[in-house]
TrEMBL record:
It comes from Coriobacterium glomerans (strain ATCC 49209 / DSM 20642 / JCM 10262 / PW2). This is Protein serine phosphatase with GAF(S) sensor(S). Keywords: Hydrolase. Pfam families: GAF, SpoIIE. The keyword Hydrolase applies. Gene3D superfamilies: 3.30.450.40, PPM-type phosphatase domain (3.60.40.10). Signal peptide: none annotated.
Length: 786
């Protein structure tokens, strides 16, 4: 250092002390002239013992060897060299060294120039690299999860194919969370049905159906929360059960191996709709893995969004499926009436249509006289069943537990639907069975599908055909004289392959509707009675009913012009939507009898689907108009009043399509005197009107809106109320209806509709000739402050 100018040496010493690297200044032969405090701290030795020593004794190669020929262990061109630094305790630490020669400024002293050696600890660099890589991995993982969530949301918006939607969601989850597989089970009437698996599980043995009480879906349903589960090591390898550990409440429980997916660790998340468990998603790994709480949150977010999409999609699919079933019923009805009288070909026509619509195979029971038992004819192979028909299908010992309704049952209940009851049948007997029933297990043991419907059409009425030479030219007279006798009894089972969707309640109702049609046909009932019973069975699952919506109180009444029918063309429904929203529908389909009943069922189901899709009232009318124009007859149309209610904002949007204007009675009017309770159009009548739905393709629908407060009442009605006539031919009219409403509304909401109907009966002397629907709805909460 003394060979350098004084001011240069001082500057160099200050510089090496300011840096965080390890620095040494050496002579050309390697003698250490100076070290900074960072290197001194690393070596953990006194400065006098280091200064004056040779750097060749401190720096070695990565293989702990000295430089050859007593050369310096590093080049002097400033390039990086990996070396090991020997500490004074005898240990070594890896360093990255760079060295340059410091010029003295004169050519005479060039050979005696000093060397500046800069070293960095590779341990610290390795630690920083590891930390950086860890942070990058976590960032990539977070980005992957976020991308998966976005992909699931984007793919599910506007989805029309349930199977494709589930396949996309499950595979995106596996990719986003680096899992080995995923599956989703839907809740049904008797258990959980597998509805989709990821591609990685397509070749694995996955349980297709899990009855209530077994499997992980039942465990999750009981816990009502997401569960992080792990499989514990088996104590006994021959034990058919495995021990599961719940990380949430730190409990153990056992399951049979065949009831679980091939995972060692998994996350099971329920898909909720309100408080109802619609299904369970299982995401798992084939290796032991600690599930992160963040992964559970990701799954819960996806399940919450998926539940809304599922409800809307299933409603839409139900609407399409119901349309197909109604068309099939109409086709069978037309086929039956083509016969005119009972013929041998009646049942084959019906059974052929059932097989086509339900995608099932039909097998017949035949009595085995030798063994005195019934046998199932499977393509010429007769299988004796292990018991009588009543023991197999109608025994009280066959359990039919139903602890939790399925997704479609829940939606049907929310829409006011009720299943047709098989007890109403007189001749035909129907019974469902699944793989858990005695007959289902017996079918599975013979390689047949274990789910389906037992059908006993009863003794068949057969018309004996007259001889060809005995027929006269008067066909009608000949048919009238044709004898009818009771034929042999035939019984059948409809079996659907388990690779297809299971037979649901709507398809079972379809069978009940067909059974009613068949009984009416066999009973040779009058045409009027046939029409009433058909209309009743078509819509017995769609009776008018208002659901329970917090914040709304309702009163309703339906009066059918046909006293024998429970339903007709008029309908109403209240649809409860998420986020404190609801949709109120009151409508009327043109016509009466079978067509009006079937069309009103179709219209109400379609509007329910549109409501779940988030459409506005005028948008619902436009969509329904397009649907009706595509297949209904010219004279078939519908009028309706639709209101979409936002209870949080205290606002509602409506569309009155050919329906009489609804009345909005303010709570301030209700509190005023009778003289001040006037019904002015500005304050009480919702007069934004549009044309009827289903009449013209170019029909325009306009919507209106209104705000409401707690205590306000919305009164809606169909045109049968104002078009009722008395003996003088006078109409009841809108003004008279409004006067009656305003006169009695202060007495309370409950009973208001019955009071109005009593007034109509008094006006017409109980001779109403049209269906009437009346609905009063009271808002019980104010809008939330913004």
């Amino acid at each position: 250092m003394d060979a350098m100018p004084y001011h240069d040496a001082i500057g160099l010493l200050k510089l090496v002390e300011m840096t965080s690297d390890f620095i040494a200044v050496c002579a050309h032969d390697g003698t250490i002239l100076h070290i900074n405090h960072q290197l001194l701290d690393l070596l953990s030795e006194l400065r006098p013992l280091i200064v004056g020593s040779n750097i060749k004794d401190l720096l070695f190669s990565v293989s702990f060897e000295r430089a050859a020929d007593h050369e310096l262990p590093f080049p002097l061109d400033g390039s990086d060299t990996k070396l090991t630094l020997k500490l004074f305790d005898g240990s070594f630490t890896p360093v990255l060294a760079r060295a340059v020669q410091l010029s003295s400024g004169t050519s005479e002293q060039a050979d005696s120039g000093r060397i500046l050696v800069v070293m960095q600890s590779l341990k610290e660099r390795y630690a920083r690299d590891v930390e950086l890589n860890r942070a990058l991995c976590e960032l990539q993982s977070a980005n992957k999860r976020l991308s998966g969530i976005i992909s699931v949301i984007v793919e599910s918006i506007g989805a029309t194919d349930l199977a494709k939607l589930l396949d996309t969601v499950l595979n995106e989850l596996v990719s986003a969370l680096d899992a080995d597989g995923s599956a989703i089970y839907f809740s049904e009437s008797t258990g959980f049905r597998l509805r989709g698996v990821s591609r990685s599980l397509s070749e694995c043995d996955v349980p297709v159906f899990l009855p209530y009480g077994v499997g992980i879906p039942t465990y999750v349903m009981r816990k009502q929360r997401s569960c992080r589960l792990s499989v514990l090591p088996a104590i006994d390898e021959d034990d058919p059960r495995i021990i599961m550990y719940d990380h949430g409440d730190r409990q153990r429980f056992s399951l049979r191996i065949e009831e679980t997916l091939p995972f060692r660790s998994l996350i099971a998340v329920p898909v909720f709709y309100g408080t109802q468990v619609l299904g369970v998603i299982e995401l798992g790994w084939s290796r032991p893995k600690t599930q992160r709480a963040y992964d559970v949150k990701v799954l819960e977010v996806i399940c919450e969004f998926l539940s809304i999409q599922l409800v809307g999609l299933v409603n839409s699919l139900r609407s399409k499926r119901m349309t197909k079933l109604i068309r099939s019923i109409n086709h069978i009805r037309d086929t039956l009436f083509e016969f005119g009288v009972v013929r041998k070909g009646t049942w084959p026509k019906i059974s052929s249509e059932m097989r086509r619509v339900l995608s099932c195979d039909l097998y017949e029971f035949k009595f085995d006289a030798d063994n005195e038992c019934w046998a199932l004819d499977v393509n010429g192979r007769f299988l004796d069943i292990p018991g009588s028909i009543d023991e197999m299908f109608f025994s009280t010992r066959e359990t039919a537990a139903r602890p939790n309704p399925g997704i479609e049952d829940y939606l049907a209940h929310a829409g006011g639907a009720q299943s047709t009851c098989s007890d109403d049948l007189e001749r035909v007997r129907l019974a469902r069975f699944n793989v858990e029933s005695t007959f289902g297990k017996w079918l599975k043991s013979h390689g047949l599908p274990g789910q389906g419907i037992f059908v006993d059409p009863g003794p068949q009425l057969i018309v004996q055909e007259p001889p060809t030479d005995a027929r006269t030219a008067d066909d009608s007279a000949s048919a009238a004289q044709t004898p009818v006798q009771l034929g042999l009894e035939h019984m059948y089972v409809l079996l659907r392959d388990e690779s297809y969707e299971p037979l649901d309640d709507m398809e079972y109702d379809y069978m009940l509707w067909l059974a009613h049609e068949y009984e009416i046909y066999l009973g040779d009932a009058t045409h009027k009675k046939q029409q009433g019973c058909i209309a009743q069975t078509l819509q017995v699952g769609m009776r008018n009913a208002l659901g329970n919506v917090p914040g709304l109180t309702t009163d309703s009444l339906y009066s059918s012009a046909t006293r024998q029918a429970l339903v007709g063309g008029d309908f109403y429904t209240l649809i409860h939507l998420p986020d404190d929203c609801a949709v109120m529908v009151v409508g009327d389909v043109s016509g009466k009898g079978v067509e009006a009943a079937s069309m009103s069922a179709l219209v109400k189901t379609a509007l329910t689907a549109y409501a779940w899709e988030g459409a506005d009232p005028d948008g619902m009318c436009r969509s329904l108009n397009s649907m009706l124009m595509s297949f209904s007859r010219v004279e078939t149309f519908a009028s309706m009043f639709i209101a979409k209610i936002d209870l949080r904002r205290g606002r509602a949007w409506y569309c009155s399509a050919g329906s009489p204007p609804a009345l909005l009675i303010r709570s301030s009017i209700l509190k005023s005197s009778d003289e001040a309770r006037s019904c002015t159009p500005e304050s009480c009548v919702l007069d934004m009107q549009s044309g009827v739905v289903g009449a013209f393709e170019t029909m325009s629908f306009k919507g209106g809106s209104f705000e409401f407060s707690a205590g306000d009442i919305l009164f809606m009605y169909t045109d049968g109320a104002i078009e009722a006539r008395n003996s003088k031919g006078e109409f009841f009219g809108e003004q008279r209806l409004r006067d009656h409403v305003m006169r009695h509304v202060h007495q309370g909401l409950h009973g208001l509709c019955q009071t109005i109907l009593d007034a109509l009966d008094e006006f017409t002397d109980s001779t109403l000739d049209d269906d009437i629907a009346l609905v009063a709805l009271r808002f019980d909460r104010d809008k939330e402050p913004e």
